[in-house]
Design a protein that fits this description.
InterPro entries: DnaJ_domain, DnaJ_domain_CS, Hsp70_co-chaperone_J-domain, J_dom_sf
GO molecular function: misfolded protein binding; protein-folding chaperone binding
Pfam family, one: DnaJ
Radius of gyration: 12 Å
CATH topology: Helix Hairpins
Number of helices: 4
CATH architecture: Orthogonal Bundle
Low-confidence stretches: none
Oligomer: single chain
Distance between the termini: 13 Å
GO biological process, one term: ERAD pathway
Number of strands: 0
Organism: Linnemannia gamsii
Helix content: 55-70%
């Protein structure tokens, strides 16, 4: 099974665009490699960015859902 982008961003499947953007920004600031030196921060940041890319695009989100 693939990644659960909703779980990665900590949002529900009925989240609107604003909720998706807010969740992404909060997590991106927390895990950005320039701000977080934890060994897994870069991987988490990549996953967060990927989740946002898919869920913020209506067409990609429809395919994912």
């Amino acid at each position: 099974m693939g990644k659960d982008y909703y779980n990665i961003l900590g949002i529900s499947k009925d989240a609107d665009e604003d909720q998706i953007k807010k969740a992404y920004r909060k997590l991106a600031l927390k895990y950005h490699p320039d701000k977080n030196s934890a060994p897994d921060a870069e991987k988490k940041f990549h996953d967060i960015s990927e989740a946002y890319e898919v869920l913020s695009d209506k067409n990609k989100r429809a395919v994912f859902d």
